[in-house]
Specification:
nucleotidyltransferase, single chain, 24% strand, diguanylate cyclase, Beta-Lactamase, GGDEF_dom, alpha+beta, five-stranded mixed beta sheet, Diguanylate_Cyclase, four-stranded antiparallel beta sheet, Nucleotide_cyclase
Length: 312
């Protein structure tokens, strides 16, 4: 307790209060600027960069890491150091991930309090980024089978085409169709038909490589995009898929549905070929497989462009 009778204690108290007021004023000013700056983006990486820049005005630290399974994001800014403080970020109805701050010397209680106060301004922008990413993801996913939709396929094809242009890496495309699917719907009902679609999509995902991408092209037709793969590799994968689906036994009351698929393979080895032609060749191969009796794989050879003349 300060000695107010001498005046010395009151001067120290006044100085301390003045210091606290200045600190609170600085914190309020930085938090206000931070809250405004965090409204400019729905990208978690950019939001954390903004937070790092503004928080450095009050607390000097070497770096931070942020991890979120729901945002599928790991962000690292600056460098790790010996000392750290760690926080789990959440709102009442949302898990926002975990953030860790690193510093060469220990964080003081006042520094931790400042970071905690500033983190309160980060929570809602991060939650908005999470909702935005989820909405964007759902816009590219088929709601029934949970694989990519046709829009996602178009975007993935563009990326593979760009990789081919830059690095010369060929890619293959497999189009597959469930044989006699209308008959399955007619005999067993659309709900059982949906179950067939779900199980075929899951089988394609299970059998293909982790780098391959599965899409529902429309109706009972699916596509599989294979990175760094030529026609031969695509045909091998197609046959592996065909055999895996052939083994499916889907129980319906006292009956069993045993679906089969027909597959068409094309590959792109020349960046000058347009993507719609790659799709057309896979489609032609698919219909060849159907004309030849279904439950089989066919391949259309890649197009190579030399001297502006297309040659097979």
């Amino acid at each position: 307790m300060p000695d107010l009778s001498t005046g010395i204690g009151s001067e120290a108290l006044a100085s301390e209060l003045m210091s606290d007021q200045l600190a609170n004023s600085a914190l309020l000013e930085v938090r206000t600027r931070l809250a405004h700056a965090l409204q400019i983006s729905l990208d978690a990486q950019e939001l954390l960069s903004v937070f790092y820049k503004h928080s450095q005005q009050l607390v000097s630290y070497q770096g931070l890491t942020y991890e979120s399974s729901e945002l599928d994001k790991v962000v690292r800014i600056g460098q790790r150091s010996l000392h750290r403080c760690h926080y789990t970020l959440s709102l009442p109805d949302s898990d926002l991930g975990e953030i860790t701050f690193y510093r060469k010397s220990r964080f003081t209680e006042s520094q931790q309090l400042i970071l905690e106060t500033l983190l309160a301004s980060l929570a809602f922008p991060l939650n908005n980024a999470k909702k935005y990413q989820q909405a964007m993801k759902m816009a590219l996913i088929d709601p029934l089978t949970k694989v990519g939709n046709r829009s996602a396929l178009s975007a993935a094809l563009e990326r593979e085409h760009q990789l081919l242009q830059r690095n010369g890496k060929a890619f293959a495309l497999i189009m597959l169709d469930i044989d006699h699917f209308k008959g399955i719907n007619d005999e067993y009902g659309h709900s059982r038909g949906d179950e067939v679609l779900i199980q075929v999509a899951a089988t394609v995902e299970d059998v293909s490589r982790g780098t391959d991408m599965t899409f529902r092209y429309g109706g009972e037709e699916f596509a599989l995009l294979l990175s760094a793969t030529g026609a031969a590799g695509g045909l091998i994968t197609a046959e592996r898929l065909r055999r895996a689906v052939e083994k499916l036994h889907i129980r319906v009351a006292d009956k069993t549905i045993q679906p089969t698929i027909s597959l068409g393979v094309s590959s792109c080895v020349d960046a000058r070929e347009e993507l719609n032609l790659v799709l057309e060749r896979a489609d032609r191969a698919l219909y060849d497989a159907k004309r030849q009796g279904r439950n089989r794989s066919c391949c259309e050879p890649a197009q190579i462009y030399l001297d502006n003349t297309a040659k097979v």
